[in-house]
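Just wondering, does anyone understand what follows?

——
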Amino acid sequence: MSSSNMKTITVIGSGLIGRSWAMVFISGGYSVRIYDNQSGQAANAITEIKKQLGELEEAHMLRGELTATQQLALLSSYDDLAQALEGAFFVQECVFEKLEVKQSVFQDIERLVGKDVILSSSTSCLVPSDVFSKVQNRSRCIVSHPVNPPYYVKLVELVPHPETAGPVMDSTHTLMTKVGQAPVCLKKEIDGFALNRVQAAIIAESWRLVQDGIISVKDIDLVMSEGLGMRYAFIGPMETMHLNAPEGLEDYMQRYGVGIQRVLNSFGPVPDFFGKEAKGIINEMSELIPSDQQHLTERKERRDRLLMSLAKLKKDN
């Protein structure tokens, strides 16, 4: 496919993730067609995106080199799938996290696009071999798993199907880099991918520490937000270890490796997230931040403001 044809991307699904992907792609100058099978939803998504772009421009946090008006002009909405897919070189699916729904969507897409069009799923917990099991040509299939919200958190995990062609991984990595994301490539599929496996390990031990009466919900969150998270916002665990010993990673393990193994061997089983003890942890969290929509929305908006500021700081440094 010539580079002149590689300017149109179709986003399937107009929810939060679909809107976020659309904003990311138009920030890189791509024409984006948003499709939703519910009449009028894709058009409503553009109205919401217009509002967000204006707010971002006013806050000097708009991504890319185009103005909000120029980016908005790259967006179009469709209720007809065939029309939405016309001319696209890349399709980003963002529908419900239900296997059967995603499989059906990709069957419909494959019937309507050429053999060179890349089919990408935003799934966060379904492995590619399941998502694309009903696609005939699986060599052009890939998972592009973003972190919520993708506009502020740039990481995207690229996870191949066992049959995914190398050039498809390369092209997707190039695209994500061009639009300002930070793509990482998994060499093969695994349940939970990389980010959610690391996150699950943190969740499990944090839950155990609270459950066993070692620390409170409030304080375990501070361990991350005012401790580990401060440096993890800029460097990862491997570099952290490398920098925390005079002679690098090997020296670090010589000094602390036995202690790390001892701590790991003391970990208990996977916690029960649904039993009686779990209810106590949930209640403790709800006392800090009530679970009604008003309080949750306020905290989400705070989270996004802080992520926006952090993204700016990282960009400037």
Notes: The first helix runs from residue 16 to 27. The chain has 13 helices and eight strands. The chain has a mean pLDDT of 95. The beta strands are 8-12, 31-35, 75-78, 90-93, 118-121, 141-146, 155-160, 182-185.
